[in-house]
Amino acid sequence: MYYGGIETGGTKMICAVGDGDGNIMGRVKIPTGMPDNTIPEMIDFFKTWDIKALGIGSFGPLDLKKNSVTYGQILNTPKEGWDGCDLVGQFERALGVPVALDTDVNVAILGEVKYGAAKGCESAIYITVGTGIGVGVFVSDRLLHGLTHPESGHILVERNPRDNFAGCCKCHRNCLEGLASGVALEKRYGVKAEKLYDREDVWELESDYLASAITNYILAYSPEKIVLWGGVMHQEKIFDMIREKAKKLLGGYITSPVFDNMADYIVKPGLGDDSGIVGACELAKMGV
Ligand code: ADP
Ligand code: ZN
Hints:
There is one protein chain. By secondary structure, the protein is of the alpha/beta class. Helix content is 33%, strand content 19%. The protein is built from eight helices and ten strands. The protein has helices at residues 35-47, 87-95, 104-115, 176-180, 182-189, 200-221, 237-250, 275-287; strands spanning 2-7, 12-18, 24-31, 51-58, 99-103, 124-129, 133-139, 142-143, 225-229, 266-267. It has a five-stranded mixed β-sheet with strand order 3-2-1-4-5. Strands 8-7-6-9-10 form a five-stranded mixed β-sheet.
């Protein structure tokens, strides 16, 4: 039995087919152009497989309310051409199988909870620190939705007194994404984040921001495991800095044996860069 999975991205679409057991049997990467060209190419790939259902993890914002007239669409995205794109409807009509949709980060934590570093957890979060910052939230054995879907990359964090950068989020300026994303690093220092690898001050500040956000996530979501990844986290030295600072910021208020071994609490993904597509295939399986 095969299940399709899609991870949409600003530059590429990853289409994959899974066996329903966490293994990927085939995949293609398709450059993200305009929907009218890109979606038919994606559909052609899935038509070569006998899939039972399709799961999509997408950049947002998304309408995930099943009773809404715009359910299944990408809403109000800055990605040119994709505003109002009916993801669920187009794939359902073309492939004739049930299609399930969630955010890219929600499917990533689903993949990690089922087959990766958070395997067996009832509550866990996936944080990506890349071009932007996104957080997928799995609580009490289900992906968290609400009024819309969580957007915890945009939580407001206290500006560090030694940081003169105004922040770059178009909506909030100095939210976490506005202060600590890859784009924020590039705008603050004038060079790509990867070029800043030997600047100790940069990673002190970055780990301060990420640790305080993570402390807030621990307090709010009570995760049993925190999976942390994305381009900026390729600076792996900041894992330990974040672990140490988060533990300090918790101030002993919550006690749990997991805090005795922070290296096993705030971790890299077990599925590497495949958390999203493995999770998308799993979403398809759950939807059937
Ligand atoms: P996206 O978020 O677009 O899916 P990535 O997770 O790869 O993509 O994140 C891209 C961001 O990560 C860019 O801002 C880039 O500058 C930054 N980045 C990539 N590699 C590194 C690195 N080795 N060290 C620090 N930042 C990096
Ligand atoms: Zn913001």
